[in-house]
Amino acid sequence: MVSPDSDTAADAPAEPLPVAEFKREMAEAIPYMRAFARSLTGDDSAADDLTQDALMKAWNARKRFRAGSNFRAWIFTIVRNQFYSNCRRSWRQVAWDQEQADRTLTGPSSMNGVMELDETRRALLELPDDQREAIILVGAGGFSYEEAANICGCAVGTVKSRVSRARAALAAILESGPKQRSAGDDIKPSESADLIMAEVKSLTSGA
Amino acid sequence: MSAMNKSDDKPDAQAVKSRQRVIGARLQAVYDDVVRQGVPDDFEQMLAALDELDEQSGSVKNGSNGNEG
Fold first, then answer.
1. How many CB atoms lie under 10 A from the CB of residue A131?
2. How many CB atoms lie within 10 A of CB B47?
3. Which of B23, B37, B46, B51 is the mutation pick for testing A, counting most A CBs within 10 A?
4. Across residues B25-38, what is the average pLDDT?
5. Is A169 within a domain?
6. Is position A7 within any domain?
7. In whole numbers, what is the pLDDT of chain A averaged over residues?
8. Is residue A112 domain-shared with residue A179, that is, in the same domain?
9. What's the structural domain count of chain A?
10. Contact: A23, B50; criterion CB under 8 Å
């Protein structure tokens, strides 16, 4: 990323962002950081704690951010490092809290409904950490494989294989129905597969 | 063997593809669901507090890194 040559280049070395701009970048990144943190922790309040910790880290490290580089990738790296450096401490809530799910699922999304979202969240939680972060970054966060590799500190090929394994695993989980179910959840695996097929139809028939 | 099944493979591949599109859309929906919430109040407060932090540390001019990790 930052090559040792950059200081000796004829061009002036990249400078840190002015503080006001740095703050604006942080503010703009917050919704995305929360979304990423949410996928890492699987929990609302843990995600916010993680995001706030990462914001503080980013703020303290602001002089190290070079203007012109990808701010979101930079700060996502901090979120991720923070998540792992705490040994995932209490970030991860293993049991899915239905009440919490209801609280966060306010308006309807572009998808058919709350149930699909909830089901997908739970399916995500069944993935290994490395696959989950890879598929979220590439599949939802809009990062390239290269950017995701930088964020995760691994090779591009590794990200690619994690994403494809994650896709296959998600397909399998969603078809058989996620393991972690809440008491009120009475979707049967077969219905789950039906739901997916219904979505396939609705997606393929326009929209 | 696989050559004989070629005609069967095609619709399968398509089914896999469209299933993956659904999963992709679902993932995006899960992510966007949080993004749409914007910046909650406590984060706004935190950003505002950073200004004060900055003013305080700005008065102590210290080029070296006095961090105690």
1. 21
2. 17
3. B23
4. 95
5. yes
6. no
7. 79
8. yes
9. 2
10. yes
- Determine the structural domain holding residue A189 and report its residue range: 106-207
| pTM score above 0.80 | no
CATH number at residue A125: 1.10.10.10
- Closest CA in chain A for residue B24: A139
Which of the pair, B10 or A91, is modelled with greater confidence? B10
In a domain, A78, yes or no: yes
Q: Are residues A75 and A156 in the same domain?
A: no
Low-confidence ranges of chain A (pLDDT < 50): 1-10, 12, 91, 93-96, 98-99, 102-111, 181-185, 206-207
Check residue B2 and give its pLDDT: 45
Where are the alpha helices (H) located in chain A, listed in sequence order?
19-41, 44-60, 71-85, 98-104, 114-125, 129-139, 145-152, 156-176, 189-204
Min Cα separation B1/chain A (Å): 24
Q: Supply angle C-alpha B40, B42, B48, rounded to 5.
A: 110
C-beta atoms of B35 and A35 within 8 A: yes
Structure tokens given for B42: 């406590």
A61 and A153 in a single domain? The answer is no
Q: Is the pLDDT of residue B19 over 70?
A: yes
What tokens were used for A36? 């990423």
- Whether A143 and A198 map to the same domain: the answer is yes
Looking at residue A64, its pLDDT comes to 92
Closest by Cβ to A32, choosing from B35, B43, B67: B35
Instruction: Give yes or no: residues A82 and A154 share one domain.
Output: no
CB pairs under 8 A between A and B: 106
Instruction: Look at residue A6 in the predicted model and tell me its pLDDT.
Output: 42
Q: Is A39 part of any domain?
A: yes
- Tell me which residue in A30, A36, A59 faces B50 most closely, judged by beta carbons: A59
| Min Cα–Cα distance to chain B from A152, Å | 18
